[in-house]
Amino acid sequence: MKDVRPHLFVASTNNIATLGLSKSPFTEEQLRILHGTVRDGGFTELLSPDHPPDSQLLLQIVESHDLVSLNRVLDSTYLDLTVPTDSRPFFFNQLRIFDMRSLATVLRRRMNGQGEGGTTAGNLIASAVLVMILLISIVAVIATILVPLRSAALECPRSLAIAGSLCFSLIGMGFILAGIALLEYFSVYLGHPIYSPGVCLFSLILASGLGSLTSDWLKLNTRGKLLVWGGIVLAYLVVMERVLPSIFQATSDRERLVRIGVSLAAIMPRAFHLGSGSPPECGSFRRLTLSQRRGFGVPTAPPAF
User: Which of 22, 187, 238, 262 has the smallest number of CB atoms closer than 10 Å to its CB?
Assistant: First the structure.
């Protein structure tokens, strides 16, 4: 579509805007009714087929002819207004967390009293709460794990304590990042927010636990084996990123049980493979004494991460 303006009508009040969208261009009679409703209700008309927008950004948005040009315009703003997709569905988070200049602009406007309330203020509050939870979690880990285990750490070689702690930290971080990505990726596909954590977390825990049981005979005790194992993980991730959108498009209208089955088929092989590689990376803990292993919280059987 070369010109979308004849199909759009936007009116606002305070921080809320309403978009009217028509498959066919608005007729003169429809526009007359819309103009009268806006005027009688005391609303502000932001965009209509016969009223060009006052905002330069809004004008550039409606003049974009494809997704690439639209996202190019939206990328120029200090807020993240790019088009959401199934791989990135959380459109309500508009902060550019990793863009310090954009984040500083949001904070400066907030401190100057601009943009009070609305989505931006909610995003700032939510981000502050997440940072607070992270700091509390760090303090809790230090107080409940590191401090009680300091005596056990002193009984084993320093290099082993550092390598083991780093290993388990990387394992935990990997599964957390994988879980977050899967929750976001499958939340729209499964159709309800409760199904995404239920299916993804259950399959991750179950499959990785089963994978860890294979560590007794699938030993990654050489650099070559570790490289092959890591290469398989990387290849699987790349393939899934390419294939899943097509699978989602082909099965999004199927029954929920079918979509759950597709999700399990996509998640469980990767989780099983990740689980199979986790314990061998920490196999040096098997050289510890029983008291040292208990001190580090390492079980005698392969753990279900």
Answer: 238
71 CB-side CA count, 13 A:
7
Assigned token pair, 295: 């001190």
Which sign does the torsion angle of CA 150, 156, 158, 159 carry? negative
Query: Shortest CA distance to 271 belongs to which of 200, 207, 196, 183?
Result: 207
SS3 124: helix
Q: Which amino acid is at 18?
A: T
Residue listed under structure tokens 């950004």 = 57
Distance (Å, whole) CA 103 – CA 108 = 9
CA distances 259 to 40, 49, 162, 193, 256, Å, are 47, 41, 43, 14, 5
The CA-based angle 293-299-301, given to 5 degrees, is: 130
State the pTM of this model: 0.57
Q: Tens of pLDDT along the chain (305 residues)?
A: 677 888 899 998 877 888 888 888 888 899 999 999 988 888 988 888 888 888 888 888 888 888 888 888 888 887 888 777 766 666 677 777 777 777 777 777 777 766 556 677 778 888 889 889 999 999 998 898 778 877 776 777 777 777 777 877 777 787 778 777 777 778 778 877 788 888 888 888 888 888 888 877 777 777 788 788 888 888 888 888 888 888 888 888 888 889 999 989 988 888 888 787 765 444 445 445 545 454 444 444 444 33
Integer Cα distance of 265 and 274 in angstroms: 15
Beta bridge partners of 88: 85
Dihedral over alpha carbons 10, 13, 16, 22 (to 10 degrees) = -20
- In the chain, at which residue ranges do the beta strands (DSSP E only) sit? 8-13, 16-21, 44-47
- Give every strand in the sheet of 44-47, ordered side by side: 16-21, 8-13, 44-47
User: By the 8 A CB rule, do 94 and 80 touch?
Assistant: yes
